[in-house]
Amino acid sequence: MLQLGGSQDTSPEVRGVGLSDPKLSQSRRRLLDLINRLHSTGVQKDIDLPVIAVIGSQSVGKSSLIESISGITLPRSSGTCTRCPTECKLSYSKEPWHCTVSLRFETDEHGEHLGQARNVAFGEIIYDKAGVEDRIRRAQRAVLNPATTSRHFLDDDDETGSIAGQLAFTTNSICLQITGPDVADLSFVDLPGLIASVSQGGNVRDIQLVEELVNKYIKKPSCIILLTVTCEVDFETQGAYRLAMEADPERKRIVEENNWLRYIRNEKEPLDNGWYCVKLPGTKDLTAGISWEDARAAEDHFFSYTSPWSTLDPYDQKHLRTRNLTERLSDLLSQLIAKRLPEIQDELQCLLRRTEESIRELPSAPSADPVSEVLHMIGNFMRQLSMELEGTPEETGLLQKIQPAHETFKKAIRTTAPNFRADVKRSRPSGSFFGKGRRSASDSDIPPPPMPPPDFLIHEDGEIILENQSRVIHIDEVMDRAKKAVTRELPDKYPFMVTKLFIKEITRNWTDPAMKLFDVIHNQLFEHVKKLVVDEFGRYAESGLQARIMLIVADHVQERKERTRERIEWLLGLEEEPFTLNAHYYMDYKDKFLAYYKGYRQKSQNTSLMSQLGQGRATDPYDESEEMVAPLNDLQAALAALVRLGFQGVKAEDLPKLLPPDPFAPAIEIMAETRAYFQVAYKRVTDNVPLAIDHELVRGLEQGLEEALYRGLSIGGSEASSVCRALTQEPINVSARREELVKKRERLESAKAELLGI
């Protein structure tokens, strides 16, 4: 328990109370000043600062208690009540008594938080205690009307007049800084009294508003609750008691003042900080204008000579009188400040760090030069687009996404190769040049086996893709078309038109795969570009910049799409007429396909001969130097007979030359020409179509896009600044969040500066 000043001289000039006791270190007194300055920054919104909150129901004597502690007079006219928090910062000084009144605005007229608390001095310094009551009355009107300049209420003589839009209650505070030789070092906040009902014409919502305001303070763990109850009514029926118990169920932060002895002894409803009883001036005393000194003397006389108070033991006597209550409050507050200060420093650093991180996570604030900002974003977008169109190594790159479409297109074109068959339709000839062949009646109904794929294509095209099996063209069909096309040609000649028609039938099938490739690449490209637009301009989606850019880009992509479509159609149109200057390539393939089709014909038409040619090696029957490695057979007999007839040097592989001419030789020629041209043309088109799409649509997307963006956004015109400013407005939610965080950072930095000053 803090004692009165250690000096024997107890005159008001040298007497100290609470933290003003000379025995206490100056550092502890500076801590109280520090907490007061921290409250002035508004940081209590973010950090739980130590505070004493005086609460109670209306008309329980709370104002009288405040007067007895502070030594000032509060407004008491009819209908007057506390409608805002009143912070009383009391500090001992040897200087003459004086009081400074200021207003702290934390919310606007709509109850919205300002973010950074706004402290406004309200009038000159008061040196006469009699002037405090009127100043507080005017100050309360000022905080209830935050939209009106506070100077208006200092000069307004109509102290009772109501202003339109005046608030009934507010969280904005009146701050009293009271200094003098008979003042305790103490800080507390007087909260509006709890109300159970409202007068006629009042707002029932005010009951809840006051409760919410009180709870805002007392719910915090660092709030010491000074619960004021009247001696005339059972305290359990008073609303303030209920709120205090809900906020502090363990009763560790509550200090109560009441007159019953069992409570004073802490026997009933025990509290960690105990119960206190004070004797305040009555209505007659107040009407008579009793002074603060006389009221304190009357209180001392009452407790010293009035039973049963005078009979309490010395320990319980310490729970009587305003002076002892003030000392206990000072002691509790100083202990709490000393305990909380290191925690406040840590919490402040942590909050500052998190606030800075939150600010950094926000998009960059809009530039003061919106045109330059838009130009900068367009430049970034075009650079990123150029990189994507050129190709990036990422798996999700644009070129990586369209590569499968290229492979699909190439395979689709390869499958359009003509499926020529070197056998006649629905028949399978048998027999051989040397042997007799027989055919059953059902042979014509048996489909011929599929032709083996050409070996030479495996090394050039890689995997052999099966040709269109649904459109098999047999050699007799080719021959039939050739015969029907003859006009004025010589008997052994057939028109080139037959080959040309076959080629046209092939190239006609290239349009669908080409357009499918075109559509896939267009869709992939547009989706990729849309993502780039969102990435670069997405922060301005709400202001309309992203949508405007997306519209311009979409129009430009559509323009390039139509141009590319025309280019593809032009390329495919070129392929309608057979043409190539790559004669060597064409003739090489023609020779290979001629050998391929003739070989198949010979093998299928002369089965016995070709089979024997494929077995072992035949020897010269008259060459005694060679060992016979194969038994005498028809093939060797034929070779021997030819030698006897005078055909010297004839070998087995020369025998097919003795076969009669193939009646389908012209058809084989047409088939080889068509198939050879396909090899030349399909490789050409599988390069040219993707190249055209890449040149006109993919790489070509950049052409004119930047200029289109400038035109679409009116950049360069007289309205460029206003258009860009409108399009780069920050989203309301982001702007509000930024403002909130910036003001929070300002509060925290102000509090940090105060902490660094101790």
From TrEMBL:
Residues 1-11 have a biased composition (Polar residues). GO terms for molecular function: GTP binding; GTPase activity; microtubule binding. PROSITE patterns: G_DYNAMIN_2, GED. Pfam families: Dynamin_M, Dynamin_N, GED. Residues 667-758 form the GED domain. Residues 1-21, 424-452 are annotated as: Disordered. CDD domains: DLP_1. Residues 46-342 form the Dynamin-type G domain. Keywords: GTP-binding, Nucleotide-binding. One of its GO terms (biological process) is receptor internalization. GO terms for cellular component: cytoplasm; microtubule; plasma membrane. PANTHER family: DYNAMIN (PTHR11566), GTPASE, PUTATIVE (AFU_ORTHOLOGUE AFUA_6G07630)-RELATED (PTHR11566:SF131). This is P-loop containing nucleoside triphosphate hydrolase protein. It comes from Gloeophyllum trabeum (strain ATCC 11539 / FP-39264 / Madison 617) (Brown rot fungus).
